[in-house]
Design goal:
By secondary structure, this protein is of the alpha+beta class. The chain folds into 2 domains: 3-136, no CATH class; 149-347, Alpha-Beta Plaits (2-Layer Sandwich), CATH 3.30.70. The chain has helices at residues 3-29, 35-63, 65-69, 73-93, 96-101, 109-136, 138-146, 167-196, 215-219, 223-246, 278-289, 301-304, 337-347, and strands at 153-164, 200-205, 208-214, 252-266, 272-276, 297-300, 315-323, 326-335. 29% of the residues are buried.
Amino acid sequence: MNARLELKMRILAIMLTGGLLGGLVFVISRGHTTAGDLRAGIVYGLLISSAIAVFELFIANGALREQLGRLPFTLSVLVRSAIYAAIIIPIQYYEIGAVLAGVPVDDDRASFWSATIYSGLFSIAMNLVLAITNLIGTRALSNFITGRYHSPVQENRFVLFVDIAGSTGLAERLGGVGIHRFLDRTFRLLTLQVADFRGEVLHYVGDEVIVTWPERSGAVDCRPLRCFLAMREALAGAAPQFAREFGAAPQIRGSLHFGTVTVGEIGDIKRAIVFNGDVMNIAARLEQSSRDIAGGFLASRAALLRFGAPPPVPLCDLGRLPIRGRADGIDVMGLAEPALATAAASASP
């Protein structure tokens, strides 16, 4: 299954489970505990949560992703809440859950309003959880909740640094607001590829995004390398649209390294999960060196040797690269000419 679709299915299952439990809590709290009442609560919960989940996962994060993504956080929540109300009110007003559950309908208007208000508040709470998840990332939220990195641990990780080339000159031409919109649009496009290749966005730092994979996940089918190539292909496809809107299309450089990192929570007022170690420093310095390489990409031999399959494109051995902080340097490889030709062909109209 497509990784992006798999993630949506997982979130759908969580939302349906939450809706089911929410429906049960409501009917039990009102003292309705017969089999028919419980069945009706479950049906109402599943009806409302499934409708909202389909909207969120396949419309708000599908056809309307760009439009809703440009709204401020509060306005986005308000728009979503209005849509939730348009879903909830007809279901409660026409007693659809009771009809489907095969129990007598309740003509008490007070019951209608209490059920509608409860459903609305419950749905808004789920919306806020989704919004927070989007802000800090699904894995980061899960790790905070489970306390996986409450005490620092060491993990073997692939680390991919991706930098937007020429952003300094673009910032001078577009101005502060313009370059922010340019980077936002670019990163939104790039992170779709991260999701497709099961990566995790670690940080956005200025015009750079850092992506990471645990060893077992990243080694499958050369995911980090394929992710970078897919990023370039996606940007090539979107180049005409960027050119029309900003007068320039984004180009990226990158570096890939592998090794042991120390991962743990840090800070107090604003707690975060951070990665430390020599791997991060070397990956950053490889990205800087990639600016002088024809293919704009450098991968350490240590990373490539960890892949469970041959690279998807030809690579060339660039020998040992001097790296500040490493007396013996590091063996690196770059994209060979056939790979560059393929990338150029995909970028042409």
